[in-house]
Amino acid sequence: MKTTAVKESDIQRKWFVVDADGKVLGRMATQVAAVLRGKHKPVFTPNQDLGDHVVVINAAKVVLTAGKAVKKKYYHHSGYMRGGLKETNAEKMLREKPERLVTYAIAGMLPKTKLGKAMAKKLKVYAGPDHPHQAQQPQAFAVKEKERGS
Fold first, then answer.
1. CATH of 14-64+96-140, one of 3.60.20.10, 3.40.50.720, 3.90.1180.10, 3.40.50.300
2. H or E stretch including 29?
């Protein structure tokens, strides 16, 4: 069997729009990360960026389960040597910057390399239902829900 390498000129990127209204954050993020990576394509290669563009709307209406809104912490450092570590819980971040919460969840599921950063650039997240990417004619992407009873 022959191994084929896809040329950059042969890659066809589509645009998808995901409505996060009422979706569980982690389940949605895994499916969006797979699309950004290109794992849904038959020509998937781990060392190439074959993924599509994804627009996530209604990020402010995403759902966190099992008390993660209070328990989950996000950290960043101000650069100040003594006491510069800042901590925010997911509930506050969802209230103030929902785009950042969804972006962190999805980007955390991508590779931590230059290739992963290139994949993350194809992600666009908006808190409300409006987005400026109508000219790209994005297709609706249905996020699969957890199957009950199995």
1. 3.90.1180.10
2. helix 25-37
